[in-house]
Amino acid sequence: MVDTGGLVFDDDTAFLPQIREQASLALAEAAVAVLVTDGQSGLCAADASIAEWLRQQPTPVLLAVNKCESPQQGLAMAAEFWGLGLGEPQAISAIHGAGTGDLLDRVLAFLPPPPAEGAEDEEAIQLAIIGRPNVGKSSLLNSICGESRAIVSPVRGTTRDTIDTTIEREGRPWKLLDTAGIRRRRSVSYGPEYFGINRSFKAIERSDVCLLVLDAEDGVTEQDQRLAGRIEEDGRACVVVVNKWDLIDKDSHTLPAMERELRARLYFLDWAPMLFVSALTGQRVEKLFALALKAVEQHRRRVPTAVVNEVLQEALRWRSPPATRAGRQGRLYYGTQVAVRPPSFTLFVNDPKLFGDTYRRYVERHIREGLGFEGSPLRLFWRGKQQRDAERDQARAAQR
Ligand code: GDP
After folding, report:
1. What is the pLDDT of residues 165-215, one digit of tens each?
2. Residues 136 and 284 in one domain
3. Among the ranges 73-87, 132-146, 219-233, 323-337, which has the highest mean pLDDT value?
4. What's the CA-to-centroid distance between 148 and ligand 1, angstroms?
């Protein structure tokens, strides 16, 4: 779902040309567009110019007339918009929800069918190149797929990739996300305030795996940390790419020393592999895909409950759960993996309050040591007996 900025056609100030460009890019990729108009203020010239533009695009368009909550006047208000030549206007009320179900039914009719079971391996891996300005994202992109987008071969099942670029590496299709946004910065200068952090956040959200690009000369800045934090919070797989490695004077100690230094400031991505590259010379750039693929595989990996519990037992043996002064001992009964992308585990305990941060981190470290998951974040949920009893009572009450 892409929500474009407000479209205005007769004004080229501020960001309006960019908004129009973003809307055209979004439209070219979309299965269907929904034009939203204001039923209370009625048909206006701006609606007409957007409609005229939309009619020239190949994408099918639905017309939603908003603010039509009034049962008496709603339909009449919507009827006025037949004049736009976009077919039947759908009266809706975004606030009350009226008509939105019908609108969604009409949207659904245009959407492609969901992927079949087992199609995951053939599905393109969504890869986001993330980083603050000037770390070398577009140079990296160019090193990966060349200056011209035209050389990128269309892969089966993909439509015109105007925002994203699809390529093949390691025997798999990869969709490089928001390459339009990455390349555009090179030719258009937006001024220093234009970091596009929301655009980066959107790319992270859509991704399976992120390449977080750092500048070897600058090290880890606050902006890098924000992006890294977001990748962790969103639970995406990640490879940290240290770019401009050609600019560093180095001997055999430089790389491990620098890795230690960078990792100290990126401690919440301690699970992510780190690769030192030069987008300029191409050094090690092709290694990225093997690492990213491994991270994606770990991100989707399922571990049988028996194996999880072996590892947990081992952790318990090395170090018992903490006890309170009053002698209440934390007990960890068993654990199981409940989800993938990212791998998530529920640990059943007598009382989660007895397990402080230190012990929780210890268990997570132990799971990593035992089970790997390099390149992927993990989620641990600690569930107590009281919680379970309450849930069971609720379920019973509901049955009665
Ligand atoms: P973006 O804003 O992250 O897309 O960064 P760009 O790709 O536009 O690169 C910013 C600047 O860094 C440009 O002057 C590039 O030529 C330079 N640059 C990018 N990668 C490298 C690299 O690996 N080595 C060197 N020496 N310069 C680089």
Report:
1. 889 999 999 999 988 777 765 444 454 445 578 888 989 999 999 999 999
2. yes
3. 219-233
4. 17
Q: How far apart are CA 289 and CA 291, in angstroms?
A: 5
Q: How far is the CA of 162 from the centre of ligand 1 (A)?
A: 23
Structure tokens at 280: 């300029």
Tens digit of each residue's pLDDT (9 = 90 or more) over 300-340: 999 999 999 999 999 999 999 988 888 899 999 999 999 99
Same structural domain, 276 and 393: no
For residues 84 and 44, the answer to whether their CB atoms sit within 8 Å is no
133 Cβ below 6 A of ligand 1: yes
- Which residue CA neighbors atom 10 of ligand 1 most closely? 134
The CA angle 75-78-83, to the nearest 5 degrees, is 135
Q: What span, in angstroms and rounded, lies between the C-alpha atoms of 149 and 151?
A: 5
Q: Ligand 1 within 6 A of 360 CB?
A: no
Q: Which two tokens stand for residue 201?
A: 């956040």
* Ligand 1 and 278: CB distance under 6 A: yes
Is residue 186 within 6 Å of ligand 1 at its C-beta?
yes
Between the CA of 216 and the centroid of ligand 1 the distance, in Å, is: 11
Asked whether residue 8 is assigned to any structural domain, the reply reads: no
Across 122-132, average pLDDT: 92
Residue 240 and residue 290: Cα distance in Å, rounded? 13
CATH number of residue 364's parent domain: 3.30.300.20
Last residue of a domain, one of 282, 299, 316: 299
Domain check: are 255 and 331 in the same one? no
Structure tokens at 355: 């397990």
> How remote is the CA of residue 202 from the centroid of ligand 1, in Å?
23
H/E element, 257: helix 254-265
Q: Is 139 in the pocket of ligand 1 (CB under 6 A)?
A: yes
Atom of ligand 1 nearest to the CA of 186: 8
Q: Are residues 288 and 322 in the same domain?
A: no
Q: Are residues 265 and 362 in the same domain?
A: no
**Atom of ligand 1 lying closest to residue 183 CA:** 4
132 lines ligand 1 (CB under 6 A): no
